[in-house]
Amino acid sequence: MDRHEQIKILSKRLKADEHSNELNKALTHSSYTESDENDNNSRFVYLGQFAFKGYVADLLYKFTPGTGTQLQHILGNLFKNEHLNTLYDSFRLEELIRYGRNFDAKAHRHIFVFGLLGFIHQYSPDELKQTVISRYFIIPNKHLFSHSDKSNDLQAQCNVISRILFQEPVFVEIVRNANGLWQTTVSIKDSVIACETSVSHRYSRLKTLKKAIKQLADDLYFIETTKPGFDAKQSLLQQIRNEKFQQQKE
Prior knowledge:
Blueprint: H1 3-13, H2 20-26, H3 42-63, H4 68-78, H5 81-90, H6 109-123, H7 126-138, H8 150-166, E1 171-176, E2 182-188, E3 191-198, H9 201-219, H10 236-249
Antiparallel strand pairs: 1-2, 2-3
Helix pairs in contact: 1-2, 3-4, 3-6, 5-6, 7-8, 8-9
């Protein structure tokens, strides 16, 4: 498969297939000999560094607890070069980028990632941007959303993703069941996504939150937005998955 086809496939994956020519620019460095000042990624890099990063900063402000200094620390770590290089590998940009013969592309992988993020910010719909942020920034850096208690840390991670996707945090309920065990239930919009029991109050909570964060992470790719009319007896995530599969069959 040639580069042109790969660019078209990626633009479709980013729900911006009408703008594949712009994606081509976003992945072309100014050192590339056949490019001019209007045919490279410098403007997209600017968008990635400031507009996309600002979009993430706004989400952190809305949905993440902490002081301004703490949020600034989280944002800085989300966008450090070492992490951006993992996105370079995840999107297989090595096969798509263009640059001049004397340009050290390996040392500047983050530049191409910023170009890609600038394209996403400009042309991808908000739900796709939020999915990218959750999947490639929040989940791999869950350790940044730390609290003194590990179970609180996991709940904070659940809340960040849940608020981005469903506009509200998860609800955690802990009760003693008929067998005398501690039963923890994690739900979103009255729909259960995880439930575990244990003789230990703390372990029940910890085990359930681990299951919940895994469920959210595993299903993240399928989730775009919540819709009315879900059956409250069935898991919200399961309903969304079933709806997606039904659409594929049709």
